[in-house]
Amino acid sequence: MSRPEPIFVVHASSGVPIYRQLIDQVEALVAGGRLCPGDTLPSVRQVAVALGVNPMTVSKAWSRLEADGVLERDRGKGMVVATARDAGSLADRRAQVRPLVDQAVVRGLQLGLTPAQLLAVVKSSLEEKSP
Amino acid sequence: MSRPEPIFVVHASSGVPIYRQLIDQVEALVAGGRLCPGDTLPSVRQVAVALGVNPMTVSKAWSRLEADGVLERDRGKGMVVATARDAGSLADRRAQVRPLVDQAVVRGLQLGLTPAQLLAVVKSSLEEKSP
DNA sequence: CGATGTGTATCACTACACTCATACACATGG
DNA sequence: CCATGTGTATGAGTGTAGTGATACACATCG
Predict the structure, then answer these.
(1) Residue A57 CB in 7 A reach of strand C
(2) Considering the domain B18-81 in this protein, what is its CATH number?
(3) Closest nucleotide (CA of A40 to C1')?
(4) Strand D bases contacted by the protein (CB, 7 Å)
(5) CATH assignment of A18-85, given 3.90.1860.10, 3.40.190.10, 1.20.1260.10, 1.10.10.10?
(6) For every one of its 131 residues, what pLDDT tens digit does chain A have, with 9 covering 90 and above?
(7) DSSP codes of every residue in chain A
(8) What is the DSSP string of chain B?
(9) Dihedral angle at the C-alpha atoms of A96, A102, A105, A110, nearest 10 degrees?
């Protein structure tokens, strides 16, 4: 473990289940290229201890990710980022954000915001969130 | 009750809670213009009997709709479709969309999309959703 | 083999969401 | 006032998702 491992952060009382927070973060790291095919994830117990959670909770998250084809299991070694990762194409990534974008757009229109006003909100958010 | 009342349909075992199915249907009827401001909804008990559900379940749905400003309560009469709701000042409405926008933006950035690409997705969504 | 590292099957517990039965408060019309 | 129409507060019952404690199976390395 010479190179820095990805660090996960969970908010226990955010209403979002821990295992789902982990799934989302791993998926985002993989899709964003910060985790590449062949990279091994920190072990279930490492993450569990780091987050103060039960190993089973982490295991559930990674089993789910394996079922979704994001990870592969190497017996005795750990979970490895799957090679079949062409799901990271630009079109695919756009398709992944689309539902969230749609949700925000629909809500904004329902509230009577004009497209221009909605775009302004998006730009404002981008300025705050993007480095 | 001379004119035909809206008929609701619920699928008990669809996995979607009954009260949410009702909420969605009322919202759709209002958005689609089949229920206009001033129209009264069938009573809690009428719907409950028609659907074979408990009145409280219907009541919960309509309380929620009232909280969302879709309906208004006329004591002794029933629930009435609210007049075109004023969602508040522009700033208020922007503040209301902001969390949803943030969520979409953060996810997009995690996926490695550039701000420009993200904006393109938003514009695409806007073209589809806005009339 | 035995020590140590993986992930996980199983079961129990908790918290919460959903639904319902009952009983109540308020408004209208005879 | 009384009958009948609204919606609803309260509490119980039920199912299920989320989490955790325990014990196990398999792989690697000395």
Answers:
(1) no
(2) 1.10.10.10
(3) C6
(4) 5-11, 17-23, 26-28
(5) 1.10.10.10
(6) 434 456 788 887 678 899 999 999 998 888 777 888 888 999 999 999 999 999 999 999 999 999 888 898 887 788 998 865 454 688 888 988 898 899 889 888 877 889 999 999 999 999 998 77
(7) --SPPP-----TTSSS-HHHHHHHHHHHHHHTTSS-TTPBPPPHHHHHHHHT--HHHHHHHHHHHHHTTSEEEETTTEEEE-S--GGGSHHHHHHHHHHHHHHHHHHHHHTT--HHHHHHHHHHHHHHH--
(8) --SPPP-----TTSSS-HHHHHHHHHHHHHHTTSS-TTPBPPPHHHHHHHHT--HHHHHHHHHHHHHTTSEEEETTTEEEEPSS-----HHHHHHHHHHHHHHHHHHHHHTT--HHHHHHHHHHHHHHH--
(9) -160
Domain-wise residue ranges, chain B: 18-81, 90-129
pTM: 0.70
Nearest CA in chain B to A131: B109
Nearest CA to CA, how far is A88 from chain B (Å)? 8
Is nucleic acid strand C under 7 Å from A79's C-beta? yes
Contacting residues for B113 by C-beta, under 8 A, at least 6 apart: A90, A93, A94, A97, B121
